[in-house]
Amino acid sequence: MLPIVEIPHFVKDYAQGYQDLFSPELYEHFQRYLTGLLVSENKTIQAINGLLTCDLIDWAIEHGFHHPVVLDSWYTCRQLCEHIAARGLLYVGTVQPDDGVYRGGRWQSIESWYKQLPEEAFQPVRFRYRGQTEKYWAAAETRQVDQLGKVRLVASHKEEDRSDEPRFYVSNYLQWELSYVLRLRRMRWPIETSYEDTKGPLGFDAYELRDEEGIRRHWYLVFAAYSAARQATAEGRWGNWLQAKLKTVGQVSRQVQGEALAALVTFCLTALTQGRNMQSIVEQLVTYLKH
Q: Closest Cα partner for 214 from 62, 80, 33?
């Protein structure tokens, strides 16, 4: 972790939009925290994703959300799916090949269920996504899946010869057409990529915090850092702080790391030329790290 001796220009420019929300002292801390998220590489915590559960569903409903909920395999569990259904919402979830399905009077794995599907069960499925037509081959049956109850179980392939690995989805609405189920699931892909960006360069799921308030604070600030990085990569939104056009969140993170390292080197050289000894410089850098 680099000592933050100076706030990078990019962070300063972006943080101005939040300045009115903080006192001068907290605003300085806010800028340092954003910089730290972009610079740091070693942050550890388990299961921060667990915060996004029933409480957030309730919050979304209270704020006018009444659309189908799309879940990855992490969140496709009995507690959350039952909560979604109890609040009157529909969902499309993701299940794994080794999850259980009840068929033929006994429980078996979804993978075994899939292998018993007849050839004619798979049909071409087309839908529009972001202005283009996408095509899949899929089959579906209404089955009891683990502890989710009776759901519509879908097996999907991208390749017509089904040479690719099958994907398995469930829905608590049994009458949905396959095209609608797959289109809903497809719409979740930008969320997957944003998770990769926040978990990778920004350490969303890797931070040593124990209390919920601290985790939520870290969570919100990670999203602020992600928004800042995405702003830098958005077309026509380049700031004056950098001539090159950055295309990914990782590139923004590396740019801020480079600027922070350059500021650290400049700080040390300037201090040495002013006659300061190394011990005093190190002590000041330790002070920066504490902040």
A: 33
Confidence of residue 127 (pLDDT cuts 50, 70, 90): very high
Residue-range domain boundaries for the chain: 9-45+206-290, 52-188
Phi, psi of 204 (to 5 degrees): -60, -40
Pairing status of strand 123-129 against strand 132-145: antiparallel
- Model pLDDT, residue 41: 53
Q: Which residues pair with 70 in a beta bridge?
A: 92
Q: Taking the complete model, does pTM exceed 0.85, yes or no?
A: no
The DSSP call for residue 131 is T
- Contact 64/107 with Cβ under 8 angstroms? no
What are the DSSP calls for 165-193, one per residue?
Answer: PPEEEEES-TT--HHHHHHHHHTTHHHHH
Residue 53 has pLDDT above 50, yes or no: yes
Selected residue with higher pLDDT from 162 and 16: 162
Distances (CA, A) of 27 to 157, 171, 289: 49, 45, 17
Distance CA 171, CA 242 (A): 46
